[in-house]
Structure formats: C-alpha cells, structure tokens
What we know:
Chain A is α/β, with parallel strands linked by helices and 122 residues long. Helix content of chain A is 46%, strand content 20%. Chain A has a five-stranded parallel beta sheet, sandwiched between helices.
Amino acid sequence: MKILVVDDEPIVLTCCQRILEDQGHTVHLVGSADEAITVMEDEPFEILLVDIKMPIRDGIDLVREIKEKWPETSVIVMTGYATPETIRKSRSQRADKFIAKPFTPDELLEILRPIIFKGGCR
Amino acid sequence: MFYSTRLKIVVSFLAVSLIGGTVSLLVGTRLLYTAVFNEARMRVSLDLNAAREIYNNRLQGIKTTLSILSQDPSIGKAFTAGEIPQLQSRLGGAVKLAGLDFAGISAPNGTTVCKTGKSNSPAEASAISNPIVELALDRKASVLGTVVLSPEYLESEDPELADRARIATIPTLRAALRQEGEEGSGLALAGAVPVFRNGQLVCFLYGGVLLNRDVTIVDTIRDTVFHNETYKGRNIGTATIFFKDLRISTNVLTPEGKRAIGTRISAEVKTSVLDEGRKWTDRAFVVNDWYITAYEPIEDLRGKRVGILYVGILEEKYGDIRRDAFTIFIVLTILGMGLSVGLGLFLASRILRPVYQLIEASKQVSAGNLNPEIDLRQAPKSEIGILQKTFHEMLGSVRERYRRQKAESEIQLLQSEKQASIGRLAAGVAHEINNPLTGVLTFTHLLLRRKDLPEDVRKDLETIAQATDRVRKIIKGLLDFSRQTALYPEPLNLHNLVRSTVALVENQALVKGILLKFEPGENIPPVTADSSQIQSVLLNILLNALDATDPGGSVTLTSRRQSSPEKAGQKGVALAVTDTGCGIPPENITKLFDPFFSTKEVGQGTGLGLSVSYGIVERHGGAIRVKSEVGKGSTFTIWLPIEGNKG
C-alpha cells in the first residue's frame, strides 16, 4: 500500500519507513502538514500516518483538510500523549485510528492491519 | 458628620448652664430684689417713725415755749393790767426765739387780746374764732397738736401767713381728681396753754407754726434721718407734709429743681392713708421719680385725719443696686455658659479624639491599609481606651490572619505554579523524549525480528527492549502525574462507585485468594466529586491493598460519616480500605505519597499511583490518610467533603 507519513521528527519518519517498507509498503515521508497537502494534491495516498504535535500547523487540522478533500483516505493519528481530549479532537475530525508514541513495530502494524485488510477503506 | 457628637455634648453643656444660669438669675434677682426692697421698706418705715418723732418734737418745742411763757408771772400781771404793748413785746420776743409763726393771748372767753401777727387791731381779731383756744376752753386744759386754720383766721393772725398758706394746686399724675385751684387753708402745729395767776385762770397763751411752705421740719427730717445723703446729685431721702392730699411742705423737687409744693398725692395712697387711716409702705411714683415710700395720717387736735406725713427713699439707688446685681448675674451666667462651652468642647475632644482616631483607622483598614496609625499613648482608662486597645488587638489578629492566609496562598500558588511549571516541563520533556524513544524502541524490535541473531545478542537486545519499554511507562506515568486533569464534579453516590470498583478487581482477589468485602455505613450522603477520577483513586488503593495482602488475607472497605480530620466542623464521608497485608514500615509512611516512590519490584509499578491519587483527592478538597502496622496490615482512608471542594 502507499502510505504517507507526516511528522516533523526525522527519527519517527525513519522508524515508520523501516517498519512499513519491511512489510512491503510504499512509504512517502513529509515533514509538515503543508508538504503533505502538496503531495496529496499531486498524488493522493490511501493511508496517512499523521503526527498531531507539529509546529506551524498541527495534525488535527491536517486531518480535517485531508478528510475534506480526500474523504476516502484512511488517517491514523500519532501522539506523544494520549489524553481524552486529544482522542476526542481527532475523533471529531474523523480520524480513523489512534496510536500513542512511542510504539513498537508490532503495535503500529496491529493498528494498520484492519485498514490494509479492508483495502484501505473504512 | 464628625461634629454631631461634639455638638451634642457642647449643646447639652450649654443648655445645662443656660438653664441653670437663667433659673438662678431669675430666682436670684427676684430674691435679691425682694430682700433689698423689704429692707428698704423696713428702713423707710423706721424713718417714718423718726420723722414723726421730729414732727412731734416740733410740737413739743411749741408747747415748751408756751409753757415757759405761761409760767412767767409778768404775763399774767400784764394781762390783768391790760398792758397790751408789754404783752406784745414779750410775745414777740418769745416767738422770735422759738421760731413760731404766730402767737397770741386770748381772754378766758376766747377773744383774742393780742397777737404777734401784723394785723393787730383787736376789733378785727375778735371776729374770727380761734380754734385752738376754743378747744382749750372746751377741754379746760392745754392743747397741743396739728390744726387746720381757715384762710380768714390766718389772715387775721398775719396776712403773710395767709399768703404763705395759699398754694396753687399743680396737676400731678396719678393724683385724685379734684378741682384745680387754690388752697387757702393752712395746716399748723399749735398749742394753747392756760395762764394762771394766784390760782385763777387769767388768759390763754397760744402759738404755732404754719406748716404750709415750711421747710424746717422736712429738712430736719432729711438731714437727721437721711444724713443729707445724695445719690447722683439728688437727695436720697425726702419728707413731705400733706394737707389732705396736697403737698404743702416738702423737699421733693420738681424737674425744675423747686420744691414740689402744690402737687398732690396719688389717689391710691390718699384712699388708703387719708380716708382709711392706714400706714402705707411701698414703692411709689412721687412727682418725678420712684421712691420707696411710707405714709401715715396726721390727725388734728380733734383726732380727725387732716393730712399725711411722708418719707421716701429714692428707689434709684436700690434700683441701681438691683440692676448691678442683675448685670453681674447675667455676666456670671454668660461666663458660665462660655465656661461650659469651653469645658464641653474640651471634654468632647478628649472623649472624641480617640473615637476620631478609630474612625480614621477603620477607614484606612477598609481602604486596605492594615497598619493604620493608632496612638495608644494617651488612651484613657475608660471604655474608650478599652475600645482603642481592643481595636488595636483586633487589627493585630486580622493582620496575623491575613499574613498567614497570604503565606498559605502564596505557598499554594507557589506549589501550583511549581506543579504547573513542572508539569509543563515534564510534558515538554516527555514529548521530546517520545520521539527518539520511538526510534530506539522501533529499531530494537526491528533488530529482534532478525533471524540470524546469536542468542546472546538476542538476549542483550531483549534487555534493551525491556528497558526501553520501562522508560516508556515511566514517561507515561510522568505525563499522567504532571497533567492535572480538570475536575468534572457531580453528585456521586459513593456506594455505587465502590461497588463498581470492587467489581473490577473481584476476579483478581478471587484468584489470589483474598477475601474482599464492602461494609457500607448508614446515612451516607452523596459527595460532589469527579466519579472517574475518584474511581481511579479507589482502584489504585485497592490494587495496592491486594498486592500487599497474602492469600488468605482480607481487604475490607467501609464507609461512614465523619467530620474533617483537619478542619473542625466540615462534614464529609470517610472511605476506608483495610488490608491484612504486610503493613508499611514507619520510615516509608512519610514517603508514601511522594512521586516515584515504590517498593515494588522493578517493572511492576511506576510509583506514581499514590501521588496522583493524593493530588486528585486533594483537589476535591479531601485528604488521604494512612494507618499501618508492620505485619498486621494497613488502612487507607479517603475523606471527601460533602459540599463543594477547594479545588
């Protein structure tokens, strides 16, 4: 699958790339929400992995825009601290899944499996 | 506003002194006046007696003259011999000596034989009767007294006398209505004495003094009785002889300064004295001025009231005394009032100064200054002083409380700020750590996936993975701790909460073989609390209790009403979790709620649970307390207030 990872932290991007490419997915990495939009406009991805805490423009807002413009995209939100508010906010923007950092490769794959299984839809 | 009390004090002082002063003024002057007046009246009464004495003395003088003359044998002899000129010269000499106005000799039948007066022809003389001699003849004795002489008689004695006797009546205020005109009759002091020769009545010797326009008697009275005393240029004492109500002999002066002959007495006095024959003493208006007067009737030879004898003292002198006294009284009263005003002001400020001070101090306190100036140096020992001292003490304790509260809230503020900043720091750090930690965790696990690892390498990698996982937990615990979740309090039925929490751990207790029971108390009211947070607290404590207890032991939950362990009077509910576990050693009890304190095995707990629980309960306004005995067990008590919280 083609997966777009959005995070301002390079090490996280590297990890995701390693985990996902190991599974055979195509991974594209961007460091900010705007870049993500640019890429999506150029070539929409089916699955997005979005970090919430980003400078300039946070992940929640990106999720909103992604879901507006490309409603069929599955969006998984990553966060350093899963508080109820954070979960609520991401749910309200219709993020599909939620994962707390740091995670092990297995945990990430576990989250992705239903999405990939369903062919990236709902 | 400030002045109302002072004004009241001053006004009351003033009123008291004014009332007192006025009353004493009125009473005093009245008493004084009465006393003075009565003294004067008494004096005048006595003076009248003295005047009467002088009057009588004059009479006596006449009698003496006549008596001595009558004793002279030459008189009788000359009479018998009919030697008129000789008689006349003898009489004339005596008259001059004695100051008589008229004198004469009468025959036993009453006819006048000779007289000293100018008109002297016997022929005319015998036409007018001689009232004095007539009376002497009637009584067959010598007579002496006051007598009214008709104008004709006076004319016959001496025309000059008749002239003298003529007095024009001058209109006077208050006098009785009478025909204005002239008075011709005269009032005289006269006497008649029989002359004997060889035991036989030879003739009568008579003589007298005409009182009309006479000055001797009245002036003698003035000089003797009144010592010729003057007051402001006027004589204090006056005397008058009235014929009926007409002033005929007086030293009362008219405004022009002449003797007020011809003026008349006031009707009131006339009625009382002349008509009714009473003595009269009072103040009266005499011609010109007010006098304190005394009047008494003058009776003639026959006892008929024919005139009035009067003495009077110028009232002005006494009036002036009275007025001066009155003035002094008034001055004293005014001084008294002034003094009382001064005293009142002084007292008022003495009393009120500390009050003003207190008012000022209170104002300052209201404005926020808890250290107003209160001058206690001159605090009187009275109630005001006590008030001042008490106020001062009260301020002291208010300041103390304020300071303590401030200190406490500062500490609290500091704490919460510290916590907040620690929280922010922790959250920031945690977030930062999480990212590289993801890297470590991910790559360690990725490495572990490799199938070509030597066993020892694999083991080492596993160690790294575990350690990293622990780091993850610690960070999560740190974030949990530093995050002060907002409270969403609602009325909470504790028993329901307890039951649902117990349900969560029931299985665990069962598995471990620990008896878990809940003994709810009676009449437990609902508390206001955030149910999920309180549940996490209870869960935390319960799990700890289960961990600490060995199989076969028990964990008991109880609830009961209890007032605050710290603040007396605040009502609340105490939820106790008692285990029969290993207990907590004393040295650990104090550290129990410190963050990161744990006695658990490495990897078992984060050590954050109790500190977080403590924070949650505290933010509800409650408290967690621990009682423990090593080997016996521990009791954790959560106390929550019934109403509201301090969060």
